[in-house]
Automatic annotation (TrEMBL):
InterPro entries: Glyas_Bleomycin-R_OHBP_Dase, VOC_core. This is VOC domain-containing protein. Residues 181-220 are annotated as: Disordered. The lineage of its organism: Bacteria, Pseudomonadati, Pseudomonadota, Gammaproteobacteria, Cellvibrionales. Residues 6-145 form the VOC domain.
Amino acid sequence: MSRVSRVDHIAYAVAQGMIEKWAWYHIEVEGGKLTKRVDDVRPDDPDSSMKLWCIDFESFGVVLVEGIDRKKKSQVTAFSDCHGDHSVQHIAFDTENLEQFVARAISRGVNLRGQQLVSNDGFGDLKQLFGKGYAKQNAAEMSFPEYVERPKQGTQMSTSVPQNTGKNFYQRIENARNSGDTSTLIDFSLMPSDWSPNSTQEASAPESTQPNKQKAPNHV
Ligand SMILES: [Fe+2]
């Protein structure tokens, strides 16, 4: 059973001066619609900030972030310097029930970056959580997953804790960068030593739904 249902949004870190150009590309070439434009998510921060534009494609969204360097180089500038213009900073996946998903993930050794937020990100209301970076590297330069839950049709999610999405994830990565926290998303020591894709499929799916039933050697 899949525990994430679809890609909710993809966040791209763009190089300095490129956010308008990439917005043009996603809107004029791909047909997206600009739903949120914040040209400075941290206007009072003397160190650094970022621009954040949200482009909606109905079934998923694109988020463009561009660093604003002040006393310090923005984490977004550091990311695009490291990986190139328009590089994937994070991909957000939709879940049916975020609390259940997270409880199970934590039991498997997944490390999250802070607590769950209730927010509005330019594509609508959502609950969201950020994972730590995929690899042990400066938090500003490492990509990470986000997990969200959108309100189901006909229900209204409470947004009584108003939080600014961009501001929050920026602050969390900034804290990790400043403290030298390079801890990673997943502790693979909790992965069973005898685990294989075949054994998982056999335990969770009827035989008729298994696409590759033939036993393959684990080392291929
Ligand atoms: Fe996001």
